[in-house]
């Protein structure tokens, strides 16, 4: 569990007076997340999610909140921010920017099959298309500039082989041009625990706080890297074909996207290897924190570099 900033029931009750969603019934920390403080917030009117933002600034947050509202308005199942009495999505609680969003139905599926992957692929394509009319812009805060900047802080903790792998991949990605790739708002963190299934339908995409404007195919690669990875760091062909095939029924892949698919899979693995290395070796103090194991993404990156990133998975 990650609770960097404690909120007491009394503090929550006082804060809720600025909303029209009823009085507090229960406040419970959420067992996930490493970036923000999250609570399930149950009121007399229903169940919500309260988030206190530990790193993101008030200048950055309107992008995420407005994007969720935009997608929700277009039928994409995503948390809908709740406006306060001043008609603002963003407030401040215990010195941190804070927001309340709707709590979506369903539970994550941690052992997905091809049918789950197909549903996620189709919904991700719908999200990408719906996002094209969203006018706000935010650069990817975890892009090449970021991993290049933080790598020197990580190198001292790595073996010589791992340090060489990290440096080599950063140099490779610096030479990859994404110019001309279709772009738009992307989730950028659509792991299994960020998708809720309500029976046999997608109940919602959650945790949009790494969202940004980037290459759509990069978002697809990040999603495939989690949903379709086997324990041996290979990609499962059946799940990949189900996810990518369902995506392509909604939005076709371009020739350039197919050409850069292996590089995008490597970029997705690099991004999460670096972030997990950083959180593991340089953790922030928190009341209850959980850092994910970096090793699966090191192994996945190595597998992709050894030829496991197969461009044939993308439909023509």
Describe what you observe in this structure:
The chain is an alpha+beta fold and 316 residues long. It folds into two domains: 9-102, 2-Layer Sandwich (Phosphorylase Kinase, domain 1), CATH 3.30.200; 114-313, Aminoglycoside 3'-phosphotransferase, Chain: A, domain 2 (Alpha-Beta Complex), CATH 3.90.1200. Helix content is 41%, strand content 15%. It is built from nine helices and nine strands. The protein has helices at residues 9-16, 61-73, 114-130, 144-154, 160-174, 216-227, 237-250, 255-281, 295-308, and strands spanning 24-29, 37-43, 46-52, 91-93, 96-102, 183-186, 195-198, 201-205, 212-215. The strands form three sheets. Strands 1-2-3-5-4 form a five-stranded antiparallel beta sheet, with helices on one face. It has a two-stranded antiparallel ribbon with strand order 6-9. A two-stranded antiparallel sheet has the order 7-8. A hairpin with a 2-residue loop joins strand 2 and strand 3 (46-52). Helix 3 (114-130) packs parallel to helix 7, helix 5 (160-174) runs antiparallel to helix 8 and helix 6 crosses helix 8. The chain is globular. The chain starts with 8 loop residues before the first helix and ends in an 8-residue tail after the last helix. The mean pLDDT is 94.
């Amino acid at each position: 569990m990650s609770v960097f900033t404690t909120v007491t029931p009394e503090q929550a009750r006082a804060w809720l007076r600025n909303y029209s969603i009823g009085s507090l019934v229960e406040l419970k920390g959420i067992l996930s997340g490493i970036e923000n403080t999250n609570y399930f917030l149950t009121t007399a009117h229903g169940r919500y999610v309260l988030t206190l933002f530990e790193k993101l600034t008030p200048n950055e947050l309107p992008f995420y909140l407005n994007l969720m509202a935009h997608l929700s308005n277009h039928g994409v199942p995503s948390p809908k921010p709740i406006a306060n009495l001043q008609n603002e999505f963003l407030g401040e609680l215990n010195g941190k920017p804070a927001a309340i969003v709707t709590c979506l139905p369903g539970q994550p599926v941690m052992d997905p099959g091809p049918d789950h992957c197909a549903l996620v692929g189709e919904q991700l394509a719908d999200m990408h298309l719906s996002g094209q009319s969203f006018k706000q812009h935010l650069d990817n805060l975890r892009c090449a500039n970021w991993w290049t900047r933080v790598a020197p802080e990580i190198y001292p903790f790595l073996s010589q082989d791992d340090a060489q792998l990290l440096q080599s991949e950063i140099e490779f990605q610096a030479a990859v041009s994404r110019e001309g790739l279709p772009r738009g708002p992307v989730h950028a963190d659509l792991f299994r625990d960020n998708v809720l299934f309500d029976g046999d339908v997608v109940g919602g995409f959650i945790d949009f706080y790494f969202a940004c404007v980037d290459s759509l195919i990069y978002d697809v690669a990040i999603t495939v890297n989690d949903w379709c990875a086997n324990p041996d760091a290979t990609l499962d062909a059946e799940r990949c074909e189900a996810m990518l095939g369902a995506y392509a029924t909604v939005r076709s892949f371009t020739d350039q996207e197919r050409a850069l698919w292996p590089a995008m899979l490597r970029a997705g693995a690099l991004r999460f290897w670096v972030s997990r290395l950083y959180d593991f070796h340089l953790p922030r103090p928190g009341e209850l924190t959980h850092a994910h194991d970096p090793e699966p993404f090191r192994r996945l990156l190595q597998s992709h570099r050894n030829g496991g990133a197969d461009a044939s998975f993308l439909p023509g």
